[in-house]
Design a protein that fits this description.
The strands form 3 sheets. Strands 1-2-4-3 form a 4-stranded antiparallel sheet. Strands 5-8 form a two-stranded parallel sheet. A hairpin with a 6-residue loop joins strand 3 (about 90-95) and strand 4. The chain has helices at about 20-40, 50-55, 60-85, 135-150, 165-170, 175-210, 220-240, 245-250, 255-280, 290-300, 305-310, 315-335, and strands spanning about 1-10, 10-20, 90-95, 105-110, 125-130, 150, 160, 340. About 15% of the residues are buried. The chain is an alpha+beta fold.
Length: about 350
């Protein structure tokens, strides 16, 4: 097998490949054997009919087509490696020559990972929200608890329980109102810190991607849309709902939902491309130890042994984890090298 021509236009790589006739003939013999097992010929067990009877019973054109497709699929990994391409979708195939005693020639066209031209990403300016909790926020949370436990009096009016130690004992395992207020403050602080961290990361990706030049392949957006739909299904399942029930309640068609998600999917894909490009530019790498630690952490969260989780994970799963960790490291690097301004806490 050899690649006789290779060109790239934007994100589409076109290749012309030539394989020896002997390779095609070998694939044809395999296809004949498989077809012989699948067809029923009176008087013979599957796969046991003589060759001449088998040939007369089969559609040889269909077998030749199957042989060609099987050979292309068999050669595809070597084509990707030799052509040094990173496909993001299945290729389209055109057979140019499939004749007896002549080289088998075919063309492939495939969308590949796009070229990313980074803009300014070092020293970007970011604003980090404060995680400080004001007294008014604690009191507001207590007020919501009061509302939840309110009782209706004889006159039909809502009566709130007084905010005292007895109230604290009623709504928690704590003994005093002061302890309850402190617990609420800590919970609000953790929540605001998580929101501030997420906001900072979103800012960093958006800022680093502001001047980036990249043309995103359609297939990558479609795949990310699929991921977002799966995420939505998971969120709905936690509430005991299916996607179909959600669509019915929202009076929305599945296609309309998918179209709505595509814009967000494009933004997410661009973010991933930017982080991968920064990782390449800054020589950020994921080590086997990084992957091992991540698997151990994931296993622990599910109450599983790390060794069992590693054995269960296939190459595709490991590649997914590696890709995720690479982007995570890249984003951490981006924030470490950013100019971050802390938001002042409000009184």
């Amino acid at each position: 097998m050899k690649i006789t021509a290779q060109t790239r236009e934007k994100n589409t790589v076109s290749l012309e490949i030539e394989a020896a006739y002997a390779e095609l003939q070998k694939s044809f013999e395999k296809a004949m054997i498989e077809a012989g097992k699948e067809i029923k010929i009176p008087g013979f067990r599957p796969g046991k009919a003589p060759r001449n009877i088998l040939e007369s019973a089969l559609n040889l054109e269909a077998v030749e087509h199957r042989a060609a497709q099987d050979l292309i699929a068999e050669l595809y990994p070597a084509i990707i490696a030799e052509g040094k391409i990173d496909p993001v979708d299945y290729p389209s195939v055109e057979i140019v020559q499939q004749e007896k005693d002549k080289p088998f020639i075919f063309k492939l066209a495939v969308e590949v990972y796009p070229e990313v031209k980074l803009g300014k990403y070092r020293g970007i300016k970011l604003n980090k929200k404060t995680a400080e909790v004001a007294e008014a926020e604690v009191l507001a949370a207590l007020g919501r608890l009061q509302e939840r436990l309110a009782v209706t009096g004889p006159d039909g009016k809502k009566e709130l329980l007084p905010l005292d130690d007895e109230f604290a004992k009623k709504v928690s395992k704590l003994g005093t109102l002061a302890e309850l207020k402190e617990e609420i403050r800590l919970a609000l602080h953790d929540e605001k810190r998580a929101e501030a961290d997420a906001d900072l990361r979103n800012q960093a990706i958006a800022a680093a991607g502001a001047d980036v030049k990249v043309e995103i392949p359609r297939a990558m957006i479609e795949r990310e849309t699929d991921i977002m739909l799966d995420e939505l299904k998971g969120t709905l399942a936690q509430s005991g709902l299916t996607l179909e029930q959600y669509l019915q309640g929202a009076q929305k068609e599945a296609k309309a939902l998918r179209d709505e998600l595509k814009n967000s999917a494009q933004i997410r894909v661009k973010g991933k491309l930017v982080l991968n490009a920064i990782a390449g530019a800054e020589k950020i790498e994921v080590t086997p130890e990084d992957i091992k630690a991540e698997i151990a952490g994931m296993a622990a969260s599910y109450g599983e042994e790390a060794e069992a989780a590693e054995q269960r994970l296939n190459e595709s799963g490991r590649a997914f984890i590696k890709d995720y960790l690479l982007r995570k490291k890249s984003l951490d690097w981006l924030i470490e090298h950013a100019s971050v301004k802390e938001e002042e806490a409000k009184s």
